[in-house]
């Protein structure tokens, strides 16, 4: 069963390649979605795909790339509307800061 989940990652997650790591990891897992920096210093992402794979991705976000220091990950059910924010024709997008 496919799901859409929204996640916000807090900590030292900007300037450490976190978004690129999310994009690479999500694509390797076959997930769709997007990621972007937020003005408050967090990274926001939406993941869509098989439930177990999406949960695996969210669990991976609790660690992130080597230079990151994740303090917390907030995850909730996402929506098709949130998923639609990605760029047309892309399975996974890096979006501008919000």
Quick rundown:
The chain is α+β, with helices and mostly antiparallel strands. Helix content is 28%, strand content 38%.
Structural description of this entry:
The protein is α+β, with helices and mostly antiparallel strands. The chain has one domain: Alpha-Beta Plaits (2-Layer Sandwich). The protein contains 3 helices and 5 strands, in the order βαββαβαβ. The chain has helices at residues 18-29, 51-61, 80-83; strands at residues 2-12, 32-37, 43-50, 69-77, 92-94. The radius of gyration is 12 Å and the shape is globular. 29% of the residues are buried.
- Number of separate strands: 5
SSE string, helix = H, strand = E?
Answer: EHEEHEHE
Q: State the helix count.
A: 3
Distance between the termini: 30 Å
Mean pLDDT: 97
Strands across the major sheet, in which order? Answer: 4-1-3-2-5
**Helix/strand class:** alpha+beta
Spans of at least 5 consecutive residues whose pLDDT stays below 50 are none
What gross morphology would you assign?
Answer: globular
Measured by DSSP, the beta-strand proportion falls in: 35-45%
Number of domains: 1
Compute the CA-based radius of gyration.
12 Å
CATH level 1 name = Alpha Beta
- Using the coordinates shown, work out and report the CATH topology: Alpha-Beta Plaits
* Helical amount: 25-40%
Biggest pleated sheet: 5 strands, mixed
Identify the CATH architecture.
Answer: 2-Layer Sandwich
